[in-house]
Amino acid sequence: MHIEQQSIFEYSGNYSSFEIQRATKLSQQQSMFGNQQLKIEHLQSFIDHFKAKASKAKQA
């Protein structure tokens, strides 16, 4: 078991297996975070681009 950010995660196997599983999980979380940030930047750019034009404001 591993406690992280007030949550308990249970891993199967020995300590080496735990390290591999945890590293994989962290890598996936970082990748998902990066993708979310790109999407946020894209949406913010879209909003900023169209909010200045009254005729296009409904799209934003």
Chart the SSEs and their pairings.
Layout: E1 2-4, E2 7-9, H1 15-51
Antiparallel strand pairs: 1-2
Give the total of beta strands. 2
- What series of H and E elements makes up the topology? EEH
Alpha carbon gyration radius: 20 Å
Instruction: Pick out the low-confidence regions.
Output: none
Average pLDDT score: 86
Count of DSSP H/I helices: 1
Task: Note the overall shape.
Answer: rod-shaped
- State the distance separating the first and last CA atoms: 45 Å
Helix content: 55-70%
Q: How would you characterize the largest beta sheet? A: 2 strands, antiparallel
Q: What percent of residues are in strands?
A: 5-15%
Subunit arrangement of the protein? single chain
Tell me the structural class: mainly alpha
Q: Total domains, how many? A: 1
Textual characterization of the structure:
The chain has one domain. 62% of the residues lie in helices and 10% in strands. The chain contains one helix and two strands. The model has no long low-confidence stretch (mean pLDDT 86).
